[in-house]
Amino acid sequence: MESTIQTILVNTKPKYTVSIGPGLLAQCGELAAGVLTPCRAAIVTDSTVAKLYLARVEEYFQAAGFSVCAHVFPAGEEHKNLSTLSEILEFLAGEQLTRSDCVVALGGGVCGDMAGFAAGCYLRGVKFIQLPTTFLSAVDSSVGGKTAVDLRHGKNLAGLFLQPSAVVCDTDCLQTLSPTELADGAAEAIKTGVLSGEALFSLTDTDDLFRNLKEIITRCVAFKATVVEQDELDNGVRRTLNLGHTAGHAIEACSNYGIRHGHAVAAGLAIIARASEALGWAEEPCAARICAALQRNNLPTGTDYSPAALARAALADKKRRGGEISLVIPQKIGKCEMKSVPVEELESIFAAGWENC
Questions:
Q1: Separation between Cα atoms, residue 27 and residue 154, nearest integer Å
Q2: Which residue in 239, 262, 268 sits closest to 337, CA to CA?
Q3: For a designed S-S bond to 108, which of 54, 134, 254, 345 qualifies (C-beta 3.0 to 4.6 A apart)?
């Protein structure tokens, strides 16, 4: 099995390892014990993932010497809020976790955000471990230390940075995902390919992305690690990872989060790629290739929400600074730039990429 496992060191403060490969869930307790002294482990998961993996993960951690407790919250983006966060914090307090204990996030991006945010808040910070079970969390959200919850006024408006002590990604878990869930992860992988270059983008521009799933995850994590190492707190180059997210988050908000994150980001990526070409910002045509890759992976390349509606929704985005908002502009595959634009120009920019969706 060892030859099938990929490990990537993320050189943040503190540094940690991302392990990627089949069958790793059975090693999660052992891998956790390699970075933490066995202690009390609070496993936080959602109602969908709990049915699939919770009993096994509890067993694996106990076998490695951990004492285990678990909290299950209802699945769905609509539960990524302060109410759920409060319930998790009360659970940790009720279990009398101490600063020498840890939180384990078992699930997708919502679970990682909720558990990580709770770990960062509780007792002003306890360690936590990520066990991603979705393609989206594997390629993106489980790495980098961003945690957040949604507020009524927008997505991810309350949060903190807390790097995990380890990330253990069992690619076998992804076999239980629906085509829709796989497409969510494909959107972030395609986005990362646009940022990083042809080596990754070509792997996502296919009708059978699952065939190269482990390599895609490994390349996405390795690229994100290099970015996060340069800018842990999202003040510079890390902001380019928001490619497609300004319009994407606006689409999510307009739909009252009825449109899934990956699908919204896909539409946002297509909109900003077309806008870049239409407004003369692109160095070479790339929108058609991006849209083709999205379509091959059953993802949207547009939205029914108007440019005006998207612009209004984007005003609550956390990337707004005063009267300006930062956009990530694709110039060609493998090259993107940050561009600050006045908020009053956002509607016309979206309109330039919205037409012919």
A1: 38
A2: 239
A3: 134
- Both tokens of 163, joined, read 């790097």
Strands 166-170 and 16-21: what pairing? parallel
H or E element that contains 189: helix 179-196
At 213-259, the pLDDT tens digits run 999 999 999 999 999 999 999 999 999 999 999 999 999 999 998 99
Burial of 94 (0-12, 13-18, 19+ CB in 10 A): exposed
The answer to whether the 2-176 and 179-354 domains have the same CATH topology is no
Mark 113-124 as b/e (b = at least 16 C-beta within 10 Å): bbbbbbbbbbee
Q: Is 222 helix (H, G, I), strand (E, B) or coil?
A: helix
Topology of the domain covering 179-354:
Dehydroquinate synthase-like, alpha domain (1.20.1090)
Amino acid at 350: F
Identify the architecture of domain 2-176 in CATH. Answer: 3-Layer(aba) Sandwich (3.40)
Sketch the domain layout of the chain as residue ranges.
Answer: 2-176, 179-354
Spatial separation of the C-alpha atoms in residues 17 and 164, rounded to whole Å: 9
Residue 126 near residue 97, CB atoms below 8 Å: yes
> What radius of gyration, in Å, describes the C-alpha atoms of the chain?
20
Give whole-number Cα distances, 336 to 83, 157, 197, in Å: 37, 25, 10
Q: In the 8-state DSSP scheme, what is residue 140? A: I
What is the token pair recorded at 20?
């990627």
- pTM exceeds 0.90 for this model: yes
Helix (H/G/I), strand (E/B), else coil: 148:
strand
Per-residue pLDDT tens for 272-328?
999 999 999 999 999 999 999 999 999 999 999 999 999 999 987 666 777 899 999
Contact between 166 and 261 under an 8 Å Cβ cutoff? The reply is no
Identity (one letter) of the amino acid at 276? S
Rounded distance, CA 190 to CA 205, Å? Answer: 8
Determine phi and psi for 258, rounding to 5 degrees.
-75, -25
Please name the helix (run of DSSP H) or strand (run of DSSP E) that holds residue 32, with its range, or none: helix 28-35
Helix (H, G, I), strand (E, B) or coil at 130: strand
- List pLDDT tens digits, range 325-355: 999 999 999 999 999 999 999 999 999 998 7
